[in-house]
Write a structure and sequence with these properties.
The structure is a single chain. The protein is an alpha/beta fold. It has one domain: D-Maltodextrin-Binding Protein, domain 2. 43% of the residues lie in helices and 16% in strands. It has 4 helices and 4 strands; from the N terminus they run αββαβαβα. The protein has a 4-stranded mixed sheet with strand order 1-4-2-3. The longest helix is centred in the N-terminal third of the chain and has 25 residues. It starts with a helix and ends in an 18-residue tail after the last helix.
């Protein structure tokens, strides 16, 4: 691979990460209460997710978000693990502003407990981040 191809490849990856970041901010299921007042200010985001995307979040998505106006001063508290275990932890009271699970049933558990809106998948992406 030439140096020019390598740079183009990196740019393509960066563009994909930015798109994933937008999806992360817009689509990931929100579990915070509706009276949270953290839009655009510095603060902390509690992310509870399955373990597979951990590296993508910590090395790419979160740093890229921090480089945006909305992400200035925002810190992340992450919890990664098996999807079902993470879902049960949130159901049992673990603080989560955003969740990202591997299985729909792990989200519906939180719908059934009243922690996630019943219409969580009523968007053009059907609640899925890829």
């Amino acid at each position: 691979m030439s140096l020019s191809s390598s740079k183009k490849s990196r740019r393509s990856i960066q563009a994909l990460l930015v798109l994933a970041l937008v999806a992360f901010g817009a689509i990931v299921v929100g579990c915070g209460s509706s009276d949270d007042s953290s839009g655009g200010d510095s603060g902390s985001v509690n992310l509870v997710a399955y373990s597979t995307p951990q590296q993508a979040y910590e090395e790419h998505l979160e740093p890229a978000f921090n480089e945006t106006t909305d992400g200035e001063g925002v810190s992340f508290t992450n919890s990664f693990g098996a999807s079902g275990d993470q879902s049960r932890a949130v159901e049992s009271g673990q603080k989560a502003d955003y969740v990202n699970f591997a299985l729909e049933t792990d989200v519906t558990r939180l719908v059934d407990s009243g922690q996630v809106s019943k219409d969580w998948q009523n968007n053009k992406y059907k609640g899925i981040v890829t």
